[in-house]
Structure formats: structure tokens, C-alpha cells
Amino acid sequence: MDSGQTTDVAVVGIGRTAYTRDLNAARTPLTLGAEAARNAIADAGLTPADIDGCASYAMNDSATFGQVPYAIGVDELTWNLDVYGGGTGSYTSVHSAAMALSSGACSYAVVFRSLCGRSGLRYGDAEGMASLLTHGDQQFDFASGYAIPPQWFAMWARRHQAEYGTTAEDLGAIAVAERAHAARNPHAVMRSELTLDQYLQGRMISAPLRVYDCSLEVDGACAIVLTTAERARDLAQPPVYLRGGEFTWNSGGSWNNWPDFTEMYTAKVAKRFWNRFGIRPADIDVACIYDCFTYTLLVSLEGLGFYDKGAGGDFFREGRATYGGDVVVNPHGGLLSEGYIHGFNHHVEAVEQLRGQAGQRQVPGARTAVVTAGGGPYGGALLYEAA
Question: Taking the complete model, does pTM exceed 0.70, yes or no?
């Protein structure tokens, strides 16, 4: 088995907490992570005693692979992983768990992400980010006020505008489409209608990114349980198979060294990804695309080949990214409207869709889903398939 393919592994359980922006309801990452993990384990028809593998990732407040299993009554771990990383950790933790299962290092692995992104350490806050990222050339970035993700992605969005004529209305079309999807999702924090006029009237965060271009900071957690395909046959839920993925880290050591700021990691992994599985974008039913910002989603889909450079706005305006179109993009509302669980909620949504259990937001006949993780020069894409 090569490093990118894990055809003998399936997701058998999913769990989440409520996602909230209510500071009066604040909890700890440990209690959130424990709840999500318990829910995922119960969903699979297992008990904590069955779990012997655990993985998570974080760049801010979280609970570790040791804390959550101990809190829920796991007896022993034979495999574990804690990843330091941003949105890319969603890929690394899940793919690593799959490889551990394939090698026999564990039998049942729970992978989770837990954070207090609203009541705790906020990614959009320069003071909080300074404690995380002041290393290497970022020390010079912070000194000049170039400190937080909205500023970084705003500069890249400007470059895309200059090269391909991307407009505010193009970004707005994405925000509007994701909010319309969230309206069908009882788990989404933002479910009210968003019009293009409302989007354009939104306050500017870092030009050209407005408030509706930015992901939704929330407190919450979600988790999945994975096992081998053989074990998955006898469990409570229909298995969803993790076929594998492709990843790239291609920055020369820094985001600032990325050679083309109009592209993201998807432009590097796309050819390998599609060729590995013998499929193309037209074969994907559900695309859960990392959308820390509208621009991230725009360029990630572009890099994967869902549309030509500069054509993303039309793709969304023409209804090609929603029900009845080419592919349904983020049917849960994504990180922009469901809530920012650091991209891990994309995995939960993909599994729920491929099980046919997504309720009003169900994509009819969904059989394949791509889940991406990351922004800028490094990240990856995973392929899920229904049983």
C-alpha cells in the first residue's frame, strides 16, 4: 500500500456538540471533545472500551489525545497522535489514523477537534495569534502589523483580482450560496438568509474581505471513529470508506515564499488526486472544501479543476455549486455559516451525506465526497465513498 491510499478503512461513527457563539454557555475544550467523542463512539455502536487509537490537532486551545480518552473511560491506547497545525491538521490526523488502522497499530480510532474559538483563543485576534506564530519570518510580519489570517488571505485575494478580474460580487456569490445551504442545517449557527446586497454592505475586515467572507468563530467539537473495512461490516452504521488522499507541503519554509499567490495547495495535488482514483471533478457528488474564507474556497475549487481560473463567481451564480448543479459544495454551510471547527466538521458532513442521513440538506444519491484541508501552500484532499 502506498502512502496515499487506504482502501481498507472506513468511518463508522460521527459525533458533534452544539456549535455556539454564546459566551454565557462557554465550556472547556476537554468537555466539548469528550462529548463529541462519546457521541461518535455511540453512533458506531461501540463503547469507549473498544477504542485503542486517538488523534487530534490544534494551534490553540484544545484537548489532547490523552485527556479525552481518559475522560470518557478508554482503557488503553496502542496508537496516538497530536498534531500541531492549522487547517491541514484535519487531513493529517484522519489520514494518519487510517494508516495506523491499516498497519494494525490499533483497531478502532477516534479522531476529534475541539476548540473554544469564540470564548477562548481567537484566530482573528492579533494578540492571541502573536503567542502562536511569532517564529521565523513571522516575527517581522507581526512587527509591521501583518498579523492575522484575514490579512494574509486578503493579500492573496487582491492578487487574484488583479490577475483574473475577480470581484466582490464573485466572493459574495459564495457567501450567499453557503448561507442558503446552512438554512437547511439544524446544526448551523447562521441560518438566516443572506442576500448579495447584505453581503456588500457588510463591514470590511481586511480589503477585499468583508465580514461575510470570514469563517464563523464558535465553540464546539466534532469527532469520527474509523476502523478496518472488515470490522466495519458488523457495526451499527453503514460504513463510509476512506479511499485515501493527496497532500503537499510546498512553501520553501514559509507562506511568504509561495511562488503564485493566486493558487493554493489544490493546484499541486489535483493531478495526483484525480489520477490516483481514476476519477474527475464530474464524478464528485459532494465537495466539502476548506473555507476559512470565501477566497480559500474559490481558489481551492479552481485548483481542483471544477472550473477555469477566474470562473468561480459564475460557477456559484449559475447554481452549479448547489443542488441540481455540477456538485453540491458544503451542503452544511461550511465554516462560513455552520461554524469554524477548524475544518473537521467537513468530515462529519461528508460521512453523513454518504450515509444518506443528512435530512433536509441531503444530496440525492450521494456516493462520492471530496474533503479538503488547508490554505495557501500546504494542505490535502481526501476521497470518501459510500458503501
Answer: yes
